[in-house]
């Protein structure tokens, strides 16, 4: 350590004593010369003497050299060629008797360029792709890749650089989209050009609906929402195919149409709803069945009747709903019992599945009867009032028809 300090000090002393007058330098604008450019190297010898130039150890061309004065000389590079690159040395044979020299290295380059390199690629997800970067430039061009302005990380086996500087991406996915930058740099020089290459990755659409069947009961309060899960790149457009019977004026969609809302569902909304997602790659559909049940309704031909003993009662009841409800006539007794009216040959019977018939009405037949509509969507009943003339409601109805078996849907009905 001490030794080297000593040497350094001795050098400084020599510099001050012996060479201070003869400090030589070459002045030029920059070391890097673009092919075709002109440059001038000015050598200042710092003292009078005979100045000569060499390039890479050989005497420079005479026509390149211009003497400025006794202490300086110019070397001109006109229309720079690759061969002009090299070490330029200015030598001075000083009048004082000593000789000195200094050197300057000139680099000549051809600007990096990307030729026909494509700046936009569109791929399909899952493909193995190669992104090329075709560079030219002299003397030697190095290629570096960046992704979204950060150094690209290669992923073992998936993202690799090929020998020709292309980038290979296997099984490309939607997350790989973005801007890739190819940087072409002159080897060992701070000279580079960049080209942004946009990569978009398309994904064929998929449409999914979680349920296959949606069951709702029709009614003014019933709103139904059908949701279609859609994926794809570019963002697919969604269209719905709906049953012809459904009235689309009650439909509402969310902004991307992935959700269809039907308000106040009616029976005619029943059917298949198909959501189709489509982008420029392809299309995909999903289907949901809307099963609309309707609350049953029972409608009577008359609400009440007055009959004289001996007359025949005939009152019909229509039921509707979905699924079609079962129809049951019952008689209501004073103690809130319900007695079913059977089909068959009795005096009090149900005919054709919906007509209540009472032959030879007696005063004991007077009272309330009820037509019931029974379905999984609910039950409904409508009362019918029979008044006999002279009115005399019976307390003990012994028999109104026969009953062979009890209906499993009406366990609360007593047998008669
Ligand atoms: C059904 O939709 C209608 C219209 O959008 C709305 O006014 C109503 O509150 C909704 N009813 C229910 C039960 O959500
Ligand atoms: C019951 O339905 C039949 C046939 O649909 C119809 O002719 C009749 O008028 C209806 N009766 C009532 C009371 O609605
Ligand atoms: C009604 O009663 C009378 C006598 O009580 C009888 O002759 C007639 O057959 C009965 N009619 C029916 C339809 O049962
Ligand atoms: C309809 O009636 C059946 C019996 O016939 C009963 O089991 C069911 O609970 C009733 N449903 C409603 C909604 O009242």
UniProtKB/TrEMBL annotation:
Subcellular localization, as worded in the UniProt entry: Membrane
Gene3D superfamilies: Immunoglobulins
GO biological process: homophilic cell adhesion via plasma membrane adhesion molecules; synapse organization
UniProt main location, coarse: membrane
Recorded topology in the membrane: Single-pass membrane protein
SMART domains tied to this protein: IG (SM00409), IGc2 (SM00408), IGv (SM00406)
Ig-like domain boundaries: 22-90, 112-198, 205-293, 296-387
Signal peptide segment: 1-22
PROSITE patterns for the chain: IG_LIKE
Keywords from the named record: Disulfide bond, Glycoprotein, Immunoglobulin domain, Membrane, Signal, Transmembrane, Transmembrane helix
Domain of life where this protein originates: Eukaryota
Pfam families membership: I-set (PF07679), Ig_3 (PF13927)
GO CC terms in record: axon; neuronal cell body; plasma membrane
One GO MF term: axon guidance receptor activity
Protein name per the record: Ig-like domain-containing protein
Name of encoding gene: ncam3
């Amino acid at each position: 350590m001490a030794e080297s300090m000593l040497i350094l000090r001795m050098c400084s002393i020599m510099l001050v004593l012996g060479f201070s007058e003869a400090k030589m330098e070459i002045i030029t604008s920059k070391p890097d010369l673009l092919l075709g450019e002109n440059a001038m190297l000015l050598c200042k010898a710092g003292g009078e003497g005979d100045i000569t130039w060499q390039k890479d150890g050989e005497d420079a061309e005479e026509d390149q050299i211009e003497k400025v004065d006794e202490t300086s000389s110019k070397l001109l590079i006109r229309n720079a060629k690759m061969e002009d690159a090299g070490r330029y040395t200015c030598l001075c044979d000083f009048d004082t008797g000593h000789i000195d020299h200094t050197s300057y290295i000139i680099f000549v380059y051809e600007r990096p360029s990307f030729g026909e390199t494509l700046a936009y690629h569109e791929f399909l997800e899952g493909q193995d792709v190669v992104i090329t970067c075709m560079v030219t430039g002299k003397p030697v061009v190095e290629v570096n890749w960046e992704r979204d302005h950060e150094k690209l990380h290669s992923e073992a086996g998936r993202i690799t650089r090929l020998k020709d500087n292309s980038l290979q991406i296997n099984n490309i996915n939607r997350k790989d989209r973005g801007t890739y930058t190819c940087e072409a740099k002159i080897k060992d020089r701070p000279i580079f050009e960049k080209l942004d290459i946009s990569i978009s990755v398309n994904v064929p659409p998929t449409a999914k609906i979680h349920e296959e069947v949606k069951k709702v009961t029709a009614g003014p309060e019933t709103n139904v929402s059908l949701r279609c899960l859609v994926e794809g790149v570019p963002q697919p457009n969604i269209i719905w195919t709906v049953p012809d019977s459904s009235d689309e004026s009650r439909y509402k969609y969310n902004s991307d149409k992935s959700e269809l809302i039907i308000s106040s569902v009616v029976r005619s909304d029943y059917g298949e709803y198909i959501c189709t997602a489509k982008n420029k790659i392809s299309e995909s559909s999903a289907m949901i069945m809307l099963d609309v049940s309707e609350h049953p309704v029972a409608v009577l031909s008359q609400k009440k009747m007055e009959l004289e003993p001996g007359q025949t009662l005939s009152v019909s009841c229509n039921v509707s709903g979905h699924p079609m409800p079962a129809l049951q006539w019952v008689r209501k007794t004073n103690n809130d019992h319900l007695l079913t009216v059977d089909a068959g040959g009795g005096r009090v019977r149900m005919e054709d599945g919906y007509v209540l018939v009472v032959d030879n009405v007696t005063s004991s037949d007077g009272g309330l009867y009820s037509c019931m509509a029974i379905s999984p969507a609910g039950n409904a009943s409508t009362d019918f009032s029979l008044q006999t003339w002279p009115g005399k409601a019976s307390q003990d109805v012994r028999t109104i028809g026969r009953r062979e078996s009890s209906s499993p849907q009406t366990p609360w009905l007593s047998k008669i």
